[in-house]
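Long-time lurker, first post. I've been practising inverse folding by hand and with some scripts of my own, and I keep getting stuck on stretches where the structure tokens seem ambiguous. Below is the full token string for one chain I'm working on. Before anyone asks, I'm not after the true native sequence, just a reasonable design that respects the backbone. If someone could post their per-position residues I'd love to compare against what I wrote down in my notebook.
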């Protein structure tokens, strides 16, 4: 907030007046995800790029095959887990537990503590699984303040993790099975579905070749093609417009020096 105020005081006043609960996750009265991402869309788009030009039925069957493979692979990997929590949750706990070793804990009651970390500090209540810094409340996973208190009482940190971080919940996520749909003559299609006539979309196709590459997001780096004839970016050898005289020589230094030849 201080950095924003130094850049634009009007923007700081606006987001303050609108209410922290409308945009800050820590102040939200409801449980919200800790990120907004389109990663699954990007992953699926990249997985089916080889079949995007097929008819719609082929694309749907390709998506089904990708999901079938993903579910099987994830279900197999989850079956190999030996810990109560998922791998990501275990790693997160280990990293935060190292930091919790250096915190100072002052007990208030048997289940409530004041934790000093030299910066934000926090009051932890293990009964309600809350902390005044709100990180324990939002993530539902013990972090430095809570882990320091759990260490003092010699409790098990697993009891203070949300069940959504458990390997059993992860296994339940991929418990479903995706089977092939079979050949069209074998399908049992209801009569009211079979009687529907699907027409092509109404509209005129725009001129020029349709775009196949997605539009990159803001701040996302775009790789440029590199010409193999002249080592410049932004075009290839077929569209190279540089004259031969202006193109860099491809021969390395020292070639022909023994014979006394020179490049003109």
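-- Answer (accepted) --
I ran through it position by position. Result:
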């Amino acid at each position: 907030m201080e950095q924003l105020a130094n850049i634009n005081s009007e923007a700081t006043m606006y987001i303050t007046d609108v209410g922290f609960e409308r945009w800050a996750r820590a102040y939200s009265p409801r449980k919200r995800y800790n990120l907004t991402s389109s990663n699954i869309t990007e992953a699926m788009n990249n997985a089916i790029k080889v079949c995007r030009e097929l008819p719609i039925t082929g694309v749907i069957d390709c998506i089904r095959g990708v999901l079938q493979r993903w579910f099987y692979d994830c279900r197999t990997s989850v079956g190999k887990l030996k810990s109560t929590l998922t791998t990501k949750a275990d790693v997160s706990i280990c990293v935060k537990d190292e930091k919790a070793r250096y915190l100072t804990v002052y007990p208030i009651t048997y289940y409530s503590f004041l934790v000093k970390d030299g910066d934000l500090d926090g009051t932890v209540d293990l009964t309600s699984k809350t902390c005044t810094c709100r990180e324990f409340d939002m993530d539902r996973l013990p972090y430095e303040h809570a882990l320091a208190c759990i260490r003092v009482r010699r409790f098990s940190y697993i009891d203070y993790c949300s069940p959504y971080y458990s390997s059993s919940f992860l296994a339940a996520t991929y418990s479903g099975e995706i089977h092939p749909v079979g050949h069209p003559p074998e399908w049992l299609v209801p009569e009211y579905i079979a009687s529907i006539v699907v027409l092509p979309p109404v509209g005129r196709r725009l001129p020029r070749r349709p775009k196949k590459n997605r539009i990159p997001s803001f701040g996302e780096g775009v790789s440029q093609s590199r010409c193999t004839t002249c080592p410049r970016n932004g075009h290839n050898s077929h569209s190279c417009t540089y004259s031969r005289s202006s193109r860099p020589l491809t021969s390395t230094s020292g070639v022909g020096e023994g014979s006394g030849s020179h490049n003109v």
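A couple of notes from the structure itself: The first strand starts at residue 104 and ends at 107. The chain has a mean pLDDT of 84. Happy to go over any region you disagree with.
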